[in-house]
Amino acid sequence: MHKLISLEIRKLNLAGMRKGILITNAAILAFMILVVFFDQSEIETYPEVFEALNIFIRASFIIYASVLISKLVIDEYKNNTITLLFTYPISRIKLMYAKIIIVFLFALINIVVSVAVLGAVMVGINSFTNAIPGDITADLLISVLIKTVAGAVYAAGISLIPIYIGMRKKSVPTTIVSGVLVASLISSNFGGIRLGNFVLVSASLGLLGMAIA
Amino acid sequence: MAIILRTRNLTKVYRGKKSVSSVNMTIRQGEIYGFLGPNGAGKTTVMKMITNLVKPTEGEIEFFGENMTSRSYEMLKRMGSIIEYPVFYDRLTARENLLLHGEYMGYYNQQAIADVMELMKISGVDKKPVKEFSLGMKQRLGIARAVMTKPELLILDEPINGLDPVGIKELRELFQMLSREYGMTLLISSHILGEIEQIADTIGVIREGVLLEEVAMESIRSRNPEYIELVTSSVSKAVYVLEEKTAPVQF
After folding, report:
1. For residues B34 and B199, what is the distance between their CA atoms, to the nearest angstrom?
2. Nearest-CA distance from A35 to chain B in Å?
């Protein structure tokens, strides 16, 4: 499995994606700095800051994951290279799992790392400006960490939903559009109701899609 | 000669239509099997079933005496194939494509890559991305990839498509070399009778999904001799008839 994953990664153009991820993160950071430090918005406390960060980052990486899916899965079907892959003495289920694991881990790791890095930057800036009241306590950090990791896990699950929709049509645009739709759906806040329950359903849906794929 | 591959009543139904019906093929070890038929006769479908890309609706395939199932992955190690047209990871170079193939097949021999590229006369372009290749070059690279792992059965679907006459001649020699020197078994499909005739040891003719005939090339040659023997009681009369009464065509 290890081997298959590394082979899949070799086929991807990761350098291009890395640049894109950096730019996205920079944009999110700039936006957060504007909102928190220059605009007197409703994002005032640390938990709120981290929550906002989480939402933005999750949404962007769900979209990124759909791009990755279209590269890894949909393109293979479109270019017919999947028939080549299927003539190899390797179980097809394993081949597909390797791809899905990449997408899942990609979303998971990127979300956690991005939240951690951007969060640290925000905290660092705040130590000069003191725009966010309150101290950073161990309790706060732990709860943020738990929320982030849990959120990243379900977001990674959700990011697999586009496989399902994309495979029906075998088209790259469909996959990415469905990724954008899913991302905007979960990151919009319906009148202050947390999307926790809905999200759990989505995560299991994502896993279901994985099983069927 | 040992039988390397055998199909029994191999049938494939696509949308209620039989695209392959009850094909019984026998391929012996070391021979070149020419698979002849017009476009859309079911050649590719049969080959796809042999390489486990398509599941037969009915019938079975026996490879090295073992029945093939949808889980027979080990068998695929012993085959090399190009189905329809060769596909590659376009953005990667020729060399990277071959390396990747070796990894997936579980065949690690750096030398083999250099050797096949030499053999197919594409060693000069190994650092070029495949998307810049012409059809003929892709075809060569595809054959290089299929041959690289030294499979026991080489399955080539229309391998001469897109090649120039010189390339076709080279391929013909290559196929003969692979068969004679490496003892490889080749299954080659084509819709061009002349091509198959020149290389095949056995010919299978398929039309509308039905395998019409499967014969050794030698027996075809002896069946259609190039001269006619006449038995006559009077030689001079026969000569007269032949000279005066038949069309004046000199063979």
Report:
1. 8
2. 41
In a domain, B57, yes or no: yes
Chain B residues touching A13 at Cβ < 8 A: 91
SS3 label, residue B206: strand
Q: Is B88 exposed, middle or buried (0-12, 13-18, 19+ CB in 10 A)?
A: buried
Q: With an 8 Å Cβ cutoff, is A1 touching chain B?
A: no
- Look at A23-32, A118-127, A147-156 and tell me which has the smallest mean pLDDT: A147-156
CA-nearest of A188, A183, A186 to A199 is: A186
Question: What ipTM score was computed for the predicted complex, to two decimals?
Answer: 0.74
Q: Which domain, by its residues, includes B214?
A: 3-78+151-245
Beta bridge partners of B22: none
Section B198-217 average pLDDT: 87
Determine, for residues B103 and A3 on separate chains, whether the beta-carbon distance falls below 8 Å: yes
CATH of the domain at B65: 3.40.50.300
Q: What is the mean pLDDT of chain B?
A: 85
**Residues of chain B with a CB closer than 8 angstroms to some CB in chain A:** 51-53, 71, 73-77, 79, 81, 83-84, 87-92, 96, 100, 103-106
Q: Of B76, B98, B104, which to mutate for an interface test with A (greatest number of A Cβ within 10 Å)?
A: B104
Give me the residue spans of the domains in chain A.
2-212
Q: Which residue of A has its CA nearest to B50?
A: A87
**Is residue B70 included in any domain, yes or no?**
yes
Domain count for chain B: 1
| A72 closest CA partner among A85, A53, A90 | A85
Task: Say if B227 falls within a structural domain.
Answer: yes
| Nearest chain A Cα distance for residue B139, angstroms | 14
Q: What's the pLDDT tens digit per position in B170-181?
A: 888 889 888 888
